[in-house]
Amino acid sequence: MTATHGRCSRKKSRLVNNTIPLDARIYVAGHRGLVGSAICRRLADEGYHNVLTVSRSELDLRDPATVDAWFAGNRPEYVLHAAGTVGGIEANRTLPADFLHDNLLMQATVLQAAWRHGTTKLLYLGSSCIYPRDCPQPMHEDHLLSGPLEPTNEAYAVAKLAGVKACQAYRRQHGCHFISALPTNVYGPGDNYDPGSSHVAAALIRKFHEAKLSDSKEVVIWGTGKAKREFLYVEDLASACLFLLNHYDEEQTINVGTGRDVTIRQFAEQVASVVYPAARIVFDPTKPDGPPRKLLDVGRLHALGWKHTTSLADGLRATYAWYVQQEAIG
Ligand SMILES: NC(=O)c1ccc[n+]([C@@H]2O[C@H](COP(=O)([O-])OP(=O)(O)OC[C@H]3O[C@@H](n4cnc5c(N)ncnc54)[C@H](OP(=O)(O)O)[C@@H]3O)[C@@H](O)[C@H]2O)c1
């Protein structure tokens, strides 16, 4: 069957070095989240004044008919897809069906509506967790689908892989300028600090902060502290997203990270130095470390001309300042 009702731009040429007009209608899906809110700040800073956002209560992205009607009414020219059901190890372990169901639906509805209503370009955010569990390090885009996934977040990873593949499929079948990117671990203002569902950076900031408030000297951290991880400040990710929307139009997904990693011990020491320098860090080796290393190869992104600018120390300071302010507001 031939699809006849889509309106994707069928321009053969790639949309690169394409300066998006400041009055373009740009829809940020997930604008209240960690990544989406940073993208909105970045767009505002750069002078974009026609940014479209809509709350989840008005537009549940899992509902195809509502999403289609919203796109028909608002006709976004550019879409940054930063909506998703996300969480740490525990949430992934206990809610795999939700992670799979919600993310598959959210990306399917948005991509379909963007195609049907003529969106010029769309950026979908995947995740570095879609690389194989035993991936060679650093992880290059060519390593995708070369081995089994990490079992602790398999459902989420399968959904995110489907999102990356969906962008490729719309490009091939309909000529859509849909691209995807794979960010590494992100941290920053607006993160989720709930101990039941937070990621490692937010969890440690909260842990050290609470230890400081209760004047307890010892802070216990899961694992041996030897595993290595890469962390990207969310404002840098927002900058990379706009850069890619302007300068990248390839079928292959692209890694977004710093290209540098630290041990969890080094990371915890950095957090302690910002939040609670008097803390004594104790590791609990009976708890799992997860994979020993997860570092992105960012060679392709660097070759395009984008590099992160925020050091871990500066990013953590800014994040903690925001966290303290939120605590004060209540
Ligand atoms: N955080 C990371 O370390 C990281 C790393 C790599 C990739 N990513 C990717 O980046 C994207 C955003 O992640 P994040 O950390 O910013 O997540 P987040 O803070 O949890 O934000 C997710 C956003 O999605 C919205 N959303 C969730 N379900 C929705 C629904 N049914 N309908 C409409 N909106 C819905 C949320 O709306 P509400 O505000 O109403 O809840 C929220 O604004 C995800 O695709 C994730 O895979 C994140």
Explain the overall architecture:
- 41% of the residues lie in helices and 14% in strands.
- The chain has 10 helices and 13 strands.
- Helix 2 packs parallel to helix 4 and helix 4 (96-116) runs parallel beside helix 5 (154-174).
- The longest helix is centred in the N-terminal third of the chain and has 21 residues, at 96-116.
- The model has no long low-confidence stretch (mean pLDDT 94).
- Residues 30, 32-36, 56, 60-62, 82-86, 102, 106, 125, 127, 160, 183, 185-186, 192, 199 line the site of NADP nicotinamide-adenine-dinucleotide phosphate.
- NADP nicotinamide-adenine-dinucleotide phosphate binds next to helix 1, helix 4 and strand 6.
Task: Give the tags.
13 strands, 3-stranded mixed sheet, 6-stranded parallel sheet, globular, alpha/beta, 330 residues
Any chance you could write out the topology, listing elements then pairs?
Layout: E1 26-29, H1 34-45, E2 51-52, H2 64-74, E3 78-81, H3 89-94, H4 96-116, E4 121-125, H5 154-174, E5 178-183, E6 185-187, H6 200-213, E7 218-222, E8 228-229, E9 231-233, H7 234-247, E10 254-256, E11 262-263, H8 264-275, E12 280-284, E13 293-294, H9 299-304, H10 312-329
Parallel strand pairs: 1-2, 1-3, 3-4, 4-5, 5-10, 6-9, 7-12, 8-13
Antiparallel strand pairs: 8-11
Helix pairs in contact: 1-7, 2-4, 4-5, 6-8, 8-10
